[in-house]
Structure formats: C-alpha cells, structure tokens
Amino acid sequence: MDMLQIGIVIVVLLLLVKPVGSYIYHVFSNEPNRTDRIFGPVEKLFYAIIGLRNRSGMSWKTYALSMIATNIVLVAVSYAVLRLMGGLPVNPNGTGNMDASLSFNTVISFMTNTNLQHYSGESGMSYLGQMIVITMMMFTSAASGLAVAIAFIRGITRREGGLGNFFEDFIKAHVRVFLPLALIVTLVLVGLKVPQTLDPTVTVHTLSGAVQHIAMGPVASLESIKHLGTNGGGFFGANSSHPFENPSPLTNVIEILSMWTISAALPYTFGRFANNRKQGWIIFSAMMVLFLAFLSLTYVSEKSGNPLINQLGIDASQGSMEGKEVRFGVAQSALFTAVTTAATTGSVNNMHDTLTPLGGLAPLAEMMLNVVFGGKGVGLVNMLMYAILGVFICGLMVGRTPEFLGKKIESREMKLIAVAILAHPLIILAPTAVSFMTHLGTDALSNPLYHGLSQSLYEYTSSAANNGSGFEGLGDNTVFWNVSTGLVMLLGRYVSIIALLAVAGSLSGKKLVPESIGTFRTDTKLFAGILVGTVLLIGALTFLPVLVLGPIAEFLTM
C-alpha cells in the first residue's frame, strides 16, 4: 500500500512534466503563441506601469543587477512593514512589531526563497504581514529564481540574443505562471476545507469548560504559492503538519505535486530551448535517480523504526511515527520529506528533528548536493553546472577541448563554476564550526551529542540551499542565529546566481563548434551516469566527513 501511494504520485508527476515544461518554454521563448490573447493585455499594462518600453536582451551583468536591485527594493518595503506591523491595519489579533534581528532574518529568508522561520506564523505575524510581506515575497522570490534559470538556459543554448530582459521575464513569471496556478490551487484547497478568511482568532469553550483560541486567516492563498513557488514558509508554526494547512492525504498529494512539478518540468523546458528534448530527459533522469535513492533511504529508515524502541519489544509495525501525523503515515511523510528538500521548498508535514538518523541524513544530503530538482530553476542550473564540469573532466581524460551544446568550455567558465561549487560547502561548514566555538551557538542546541551537531549543520545547510526546513529542536530565535543564518541565506542565493549568470553570459557569446566524430555526446545514458557520478563524488568529498560526525555516528551508536 505504501509503495502504491508513492508510485501513483510519481506517475502523475511524470505525466505532468512534458505539458508543463512545454508551457514554460512557450511562456519564455518570446515567440507568439495562443496564450498571448489571454495574458498579453495584462502584461502590457504592467509594462506601461513600470515604464518598460525597451525589452531588448540584457548582458549578464545588467540582468544580475536588475534582479538584485528589484530584490533590494522589496526587502526595504517588507522590513518597514514588519517593524511597524503593530500600528498597521488588517491586524485583528493585535500582533506587535517584530524585533530588528528577527525582521532582518525574515525579510532575507523570504526574499531569497528560503522561508526559514524563526517565528511562529499564527502568533508572530499580522494578516497584513502574512499577505503584504510573506505572500508577496513568495511570488517575487519565485519569479526572480525562475527568471534567472531561464536566462541561464538561454545563455548556454542560444547562438545570439543574450540572456533576455529580466523585467520582462519577471512579469511573465508572475502573470503567466504563478498567479494563474496559485489561483487554481487556492480554490482547490478552499474546496478541501483549508481556511481562507480575514476573521480574527476564534475563541471557543470546550466540553470540559476550558477556553481554546483557534487561529485562522488567509491560509489557502498562502499555501498555494508557498508550494508552487517552492517557498515553504507556513501560515502556522507547525507548517504543513497543521490540519488547517494540510487537512487530508489528498491535500498532501496536491501540495507535493505543487512544489515538485515546475522544478521537475524545467529540464524538459531546457531540452526545448536546446532543440534536443533527449538532452532534457537525460538531465531529468539524473535528478530522478538521485531522488529515488534518497527517498528510499528515508522511507526504509523510518519504516524500520527506531532501533532503541524496537529493542524494548514495542510493536514497530507502523514504523517510526514520532513527529508524524497519523493521517499521513510513514509513506506520505517520507515522500513529503524527500520532495520538500529535493525541491528546496522547506515546508514539512512531519518534524524532521524526530527522523531516524539515516532518515534525517537523506534530506540533509539533498540540500548539500542542491541539484535534485531544486527550487525554481536552482536544481536545473546547478545540475547543468555539474554537466559542464563532467564534460570538462571527460575532455581532460581524452585530451580534447571540452564542449557542451556545441560551445567550448574554457578556463573562464571553469573558474566561475569552481566559485559556485566551493561557495556552497564553505557557507555551510564554516558557520557550523563557528556555532560550536561560542556558547551563543551551543546554548540553542537541545541535544549536546551527535544529534546536536546535526541540528546546527541542518540549520546552515537549509539556509545555504535556500530551503528553510529545520531541526526544530534548535532554539534559533536569537540574535546570533538570526544574523548568521541571514548572512548565509544571502550568500547562498546571490553568489551562485552571479557566478552562473556570468557563465551563461560567457557561453552566449561563443560560436558553435561543428559536431565531429570526436564530439562527446551529452544526450546519452552514459553521460547521465557520468553526471550522477560527478555529483556524488564531489558531494562525498565535501560533506561526508561532517555527516560521519553527525547522523552516521548517531546511527552507529543506537
């Protein structure tokens, strides 16, 4: 039964990849298509409002600066709203202003598409904050990420035309992708009993005579873009394990597909841009192989139960149900865990801190690799980075100048890719080490042993991968954790974006090299194997030592 549940979701995803990937291609190919009649007038209105008359292609520097400048403006507005929230309207519960360090962490978190929450949504945020700051930034951060992914694809596949225009891509991502899909998913969730209201917290009297306060609000609209935009920040502190956010197995499947489909469809979009659909399927296959491996590790570990509890003779037929909702069970909890960390969403329908050691290692590893589907284009762009690296290594082995999609890979591209590859582990491992050198870091740990290392490591890995989930045994709402994770989120988002846009800009200006008998083809099963091997080799060399000290050591001592 468990395998059937997981299998059905994966089959539905496979059926959605081609149509969704084709749709995204038509949206951003800038070629006339049938959707122009529906969305064209709306886009023209936005172009007129922002004064965008010239929509010609940008250089990689202009594209990156345009994205960063737009994000800075949104961060400034959002920070002001959070700091003044207590005196602003649409605050029926009287929520006060958010303090400075938490406001800094929150705006950085949501603008970088991380959505790491060091506050509890129902008590720490007003309705205005939930809508104007949280929901708005869920749209804009996702649109920014998708625009960058499309620009990168254009750079490595086009013969001419540059990377495109950021503002045009940004508006198209909103008007043609996220807004219509979010509207549909919102209506479906409302129909499945997810609340959508501006009424204040409801006070009820229980049968025993006690008073209970039930928080509600505009939940469905936040849930839709939370998953479609691979954001992950919950309306409630319990996130998607809360029955108002995710009331049934059906809503659970809808939320899984919402956060997975666009990311999974982007390799097919890449294949359309490259005029080689097989190339897109090879990238997708490499991602799916890695995903299934990590999903299997999580499921088997959780289904086997906790060894220490099993030794007591307690019935473990249901598996390790600690931290999981009975309405989901191990299968849907494991699938949600694997998808939310693969797609760098960060929403949770079970508490990751209570996963078995190897069950917790799988989501950690997915975020460390950061190529298993990824968020809005993150996984695809990073996997293409490894594809270029794999081609380079193979070229060195046979003594031939490496080529990818008919363009020579030279020292400039490899230096930029090295920056992106090395920056990710650096901003994870260095802060983790620092957190154990000061009581400001160790005081927040609820477990001083191997699991305590995993808690700190998970927090920084989640921040660097712009995921946002956490081992919530960590007391993270302190100035130290708010500022340090805020800085890691910034670096994790923008260092790789700038480096990889520079790679795309460099490749976009190169002439195509005619294919010959010595050309190494990158649309074969052999290359898929090389790609998976390259990802695992670099990941193991970088992160295996710290994983041995954390979850692996914890497993071996149980």
UniProtKB/TrEMBL annotation:
Assigned GO CC terms: plasma membrane
The organism's place on the tree of life at top rank: Bacteria
Pfam families: KdpA
GO molecular-function terms, A-Z: P-type potassium transmembrane transporter activity; potassium ion binding
The entry's keywords: Cell membrane, Ion transport, Membrane, Potassium, Potassium transport, Transmembrane, Transmembrane helix, Transport
Protein function: Part of the high-affinity ATP-driven potassium transport (or Kdp) system, which catalyzes the hydrolysis of ATP coupled with the electrogenic transport of potassium into the cytoplasm. This subunit binds the extracellular potassium ions and delivers the ions to the membrane domain of KdpB through an intramembrane tunnel.
Protein name (Swiss-Prot/TrEMBL): Potassium-transporting ATPase potassium-binding subunit
Organism: Paenibacillus albilobatus
Source taxonomy: Bacteria, Bacillati, Bacillota, Bacilli, Bacillales
